[in-house]
Inverse folding.
């Protein structure tokens, strides 16, 4: 994990990582590339700064809720269905998923941001966020999102016809 995370002078990189990746991502290769770029301090600091402004830094937030919000800004629900914490899948459609825990810089980004937003946040809670709340139920959440979108489009189409 990059050093000097609290120095604001190094938070303005020449090449903005947010411009480069156009979040949320829907591709594992792009997520791996972003993880690699987050190994550079200037990119890591820029992302920390960006997400601190979204989830807050007062230490009073609820880490799991803010972590879900942050995750959905970084990657789509569909992308989350292609991953698990360990890479193991219990479903027939995916014999092996991508192991999210290998994205050390992305995992550290969540920890850094969420530990400022929630003073009770720990690395153990960070791991459980992915292994339980986000990735374990990703398929259900992706289906619910798709159904909500389809229902909205159907309602919009009916309003146009009326």
């Amino acid at each position: 994990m990059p050093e000097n995370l609290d120095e604001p002078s190094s938070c303005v990189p020449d090449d903005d990582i947010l411009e480069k990746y156009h979040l949320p991502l829907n591709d594992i290769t792009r997520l791996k590339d972003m993880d690699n770029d987050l190994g550079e301090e200037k990119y890591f600091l820029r992302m920390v700064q960006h997400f601190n402004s979204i989830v807050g830094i007062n230490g009073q937030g609820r880490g799991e809720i803010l972590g879900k919000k942050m995750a959905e800004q970084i990657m789509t629900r569909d992308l989350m269905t292609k991953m698990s914490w360990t890479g193991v899948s219990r479903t027939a459609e995916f014999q092996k998923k991508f192991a999210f825990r290998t994205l050390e810089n992305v995992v550290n980004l969540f920890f850094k941001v969420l530990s400022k937003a929630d003073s009770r946040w720990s690395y153990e809670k960070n791991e459980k966020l992915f292994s339980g709340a986000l990735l374990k139920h990703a398929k259900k959440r992706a289906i619910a999102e798709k159904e909500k979108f389809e229902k909205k489009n159907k309602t919009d189409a009916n309003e146009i016809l009326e």
Summary: The beta strands are 83-84, 98-99. Confidence is low (pLDDT under 50) at residues 5-13. The helical segments are 17-21, 28-37, 41-55, 63-74, 77-80, 104-117, 123-134, 138-161.
